[in-house]
Amino acid sequence: MILGLTGGIGSGKSTVSKILNSVGIKVFDADLIAKDILELKEVKEEIKEKLGNKFIIGNKTNKKLLKKEIFSDDEKLKILNGIIHPKVKRYYESLSEKFLKKKEIVVFDIPLLFEVGLESLCNKVIVVDIDSKIQIERVKKRDSLSSEFIEKILEKQMPREEKLKKADIIIENNGSLEELENKVFALIERIREEKYEDCSPSGKY
Ligand code: ATP
């Protein structure tokens, strides 16, 4: 069984993934996969050709510069997504074939799950939801980014309300880490007891 896990920047996906990991659930993290893809030889060549040599330093992709520039330039963001997203998609498609009908629960942690259209690869989609004010504060604290830059990233993501409409299961993460942990444990227990159909379409934790 595949649970898609998504939500806006800083909503708490990685934190939920860690909790899931702690109870033995395998998580496939799209951010890590995308980082590996960025270091593939053919991808670095494509970045050089389509975005410029400055993004490859020595033999490595300059991720910091890429991040800075793509969120200030829609055209560059589109080009980079055009290079990376098809590869991420193929990776998850092959994993989906392997796990979709299995009893084992695995998680696809994909920030842009809806934006890239990967929900059909999952049995259920969990959206981690957070109030915008708390979201910006948590990201500021974690990444030392300005509110303006965080707003820019948020503008490129699907609006919160739209994500919530598409969710099978919603985990609200405005409270403490302990509260989040308890919600995730309760959810997993429910799924393991095979009562997860009850969560659909608006199961809220
Ligand atoms: P991104 O989309 O940027 O990868 P994410 O959705 O994976 O972010 P996390 O990194 O899990 O989000 O959480 C963002 C920050 O908020 C982290 O510093 C994390 O430790 C913190 N955080 C998450 N949940 C809580 C909580 N319930 N209470 C306090 N801090 C939290």
DSSP helix fraction: 55-70%
Give the SSE order as H and E letters.
Answer: EHEHHEEHHEHEHHHEHE
Q: Provide the structure class.
A: alpha/beta
Total count of helical runs of at least 4 residues: 10
| Spatial strand arrangement across the major sheet | 2-5-1-6-7-8
Bound chemical compounds: adenosine-5'-triphosphate
Portion in strands: 5-15%
User: How is the CATH topology named?
Assistant: Rossmann fold
CATH class: Alpha Beta
What's the total count of β strands?
8
As an assembly, this protein is single chain
The radius of gyration is 18 Å
Mean pLDDT: 92
Q: Give the full name of the CATH homologous superfamily.
A: P-loop containing nucleotide triphosphate hydrolases
How many domains? The number is 1
Biggest sheet layout: 6 strands, parallel
Question: Gap between N and C termini, in Å?
Answer: 20 Å
CATH architecture level-2 label: 3-Layer(aba) Sandwich
Weakly predicted, low-confidence segments = 198-202
